[in-house]
Specification:
With 134 residues, the chain is α/β, with parallel strands linked by helices. The protein has helices at 20-34, 54-63, 72-77, 87-93, 99-107, and strands at residues 8-14, 41-47, 66-70, 112-113, 118-120, 123-129. The mean pLDDT is 90.
């Protein structure tokens, strides 16, 4: 997915049944770690395999952000740009990560990570930007 203007994308991953408050905490921690205001977020992205996770959808609703579900092939294509890998995710989905890869894939080919994923309990969040590197 290519975006029309520069934005910050929160890529989110979680274990099955993770509550919205835990997803929100992971997003808040990632934002704080990068010194970014929550108002700067443009959307939330996650794996298409997480379409049935109510916690992610509820967090997006609470934060007033659009939620994008990224296809597995697009997550895999983002692998060279990820900073970390999860063996658990690789075992279950065959891709290196959900949070980092989803943020990058949703931002398009020019998106770049602002930092490695942040884990809070059973949720992870990685922030990507579509703004060119300085």
């Amino acid at each position: 997915m290519d975006v029309d203007e520069a934005m910050i994308i929160a890529g989110v991953g979680c274990r099955k049944g993770t509550a919205a408050r835990d997803i929100e905490a992971a997003i808040a921690a990632a934002l704080a770690g990068c010194g970014i205001s929550g108002k700067a977020l443009g959307l939330i992205a996650t794996a298409q395999a997480k379409e049935t996770e109510p916690g992610i959808a509820a967090a997006a609703t609470v934060l007033g952000l659009r939620l994008v579900h990224v296809a597995l092939a697009d997550l895999a294509a983002a692998e060279p740009r990820t900073l970390t890998q999860s063996q658990r995710v690789r075992h279950h989905l065959g891709v290196p990560s959900i949070a980092e890869a989803a943020a990058l894939a949703a931002g398009g080919p020019q998106a770049r990570l602002l930092a490695a994923r942040t884990a809070v309990g059973a949720a992870t969040c990685a922030l990507a930007t579509t703004e060119p590197a300085p």
